[in-house]
Design goal:
The complex is a heterodimer of chains A (210) and B (117). Chain A is mostly helical and 210 residues long. Chain A is 80% helix and 0% strand. Chain A starts with 12 loop residues before the first helix and ends in a 5-residue tail after the last helix. The N and C termini of chain B lie far apart (69 Å). Chain B is flat. In chain B, α1 packs antiparallel against α2. Among the domains of chain B are: 50 residues; 28 residues. Chain B is an all-alpha fold. Classes of the chains: A mainly alpha (210), B mainly alpha (117). Chains A and B meet through α1, α3, α6 and α7 of A and α1, α2, α3 and α4 of B.
């Protein structure tokens, strides 16, 4: 990777990377508030009926949730590896790490999809087949949040998988992207991981001890 | 390659810490701590998020300006959550409209709360 020339508006590669990183963080700040509004709504509803929320949360599958958290944390480690190897110009290793990251992302979506199927069979999907007589209105609110938050997260993850897969293919062909690109995709991937780190306790862990 | 070595070790040490914290929070959720359960779970989540932010997202070796941008997002989030809770946690005698729906649950006294409002 000898082309160490910055785009024309920058004096140096380091300056270009700094500007790109700053721009990515500005975007991520809006994403923090985007998901944050959901969590604020969750908190407001939870305050009105903590026992009902705890009861509803017990209908989620903690083993699948924990497995998915493990998958996502591992994918983030591979992404960090890819960024490290990409900047050390080891294209083939970077491609392998990116492929592992994307594969783990797909595994997460697979587990999540299976979870949705199980929940559909149990009558836990609001607006489709929610069993109101069995679970009650607070559980419906909880699962409305659950589906909205996890689907929004899954959408973000799907975008990340697309970006990561594309970069993996480019590195595999020996034509890695320009300097800041891999780093920025990495930041995005880790952010999606951070969102899940907070969704996991709010969805799966509350009310387990009750 | 020689420069990549220590970074690789750091990445997998961070991963190991994250997995340990995941095990701790999953196991801890089953301990009967009452209201503390939620705080413990959120504290562990915050610790995991910090690890990801500092090590994986490289805030450790970012410039002050980048760190300020990262902190700004969470700062505004804190304002949003604080002002929202300041309302919902303190409002006792003028419930929000949707409180009628949750009052339909039987626990207190067993009255027909649903028809009220």
């Amino acid at each position: 990777m000898a082309e160490a020339r910055p785009a024309f508006q920058y004096a140096a590669i380091a300056q270009q990377r700094e500007a790109a990183t700053l721009g990515m963080w500005a975007f991520l700040a809006t994403e923090i508030l985007f998901f944050g509004a959901l969590i604020a709504a969750y908190s407001a509803y939870r305050v009105s009926d903590p026992a009902g929320f705890a009861e509803a949360a017990r209908h989620t599958r903690i083993a699948l949730g924990a497995a998915n958290t493990f998958i996502l944390l591992t994918s983030s480690a591979f992404m960090a590896m890819a960024v490290e190897l990409g900047s050390a110009a080891r294209a083939r290793s970077a491609a392998l790490c990116l492929a592992a990251t994307a594969a783990l992302g797909l595994a997460f979506l697979g587990v999540k999809g299976w979870e949705y199927v199980l929940e559909y069979r149990e009558g836990l999907v609001p607006a489709l087949d929610f069993d109101l007589a069995r679970y009650g209105p607070t559980a419906e609110l909880f699962f409305l949040f659950y589906f909205f938050a996890t689907l929004l997260h899954a959408l973000h993850l799907a975008i990340g998988i697309g970006l990561t897969g594309t970069l993996a293919a480019r590195f595999a062909r020996g034509r890695g992207p320009r300097e800041p690109v891999l780093r920025l995709v990495g930041l995005y991937w880790h952010f999606v991981d951070v969102v899940w780190i907070f969704l996991f306790p709010l969805i799966y862990l509350v009310g387990r001890s009750g | 390659m020689s420069a990549a070595r220590p970074a690789v070790g750091r990445i997998w040490r961070c991963w190991a810490a994250l997995v340990l914290l995941l095990a701790a929070t999953t196991g801890g959720a089953f301990l009967p701590l009452g209201r503390l359960n939620l705080f413990v779970a959120l504290a562990i989540a915050a610790a995991k998020a910090l690890l990801v932010l500092i090590v994986f997202m490289e805030l450790r070796r970012s410039s002050g300006l980048v760190r300020a941008f990262a902190a700004a997002g969470f700062f505004w989030l804190a304002i949003m959550l604080t002002l929202t809770s300041a309302d919902y946690l303190t409002r006792r005698d003028a419930p929000a409209a949707w409180d009628g729906a949750t009052d339909a649950r039987p626990p207190a006294g067993g009255g027909e709360g649903a028809g009220g409002q």
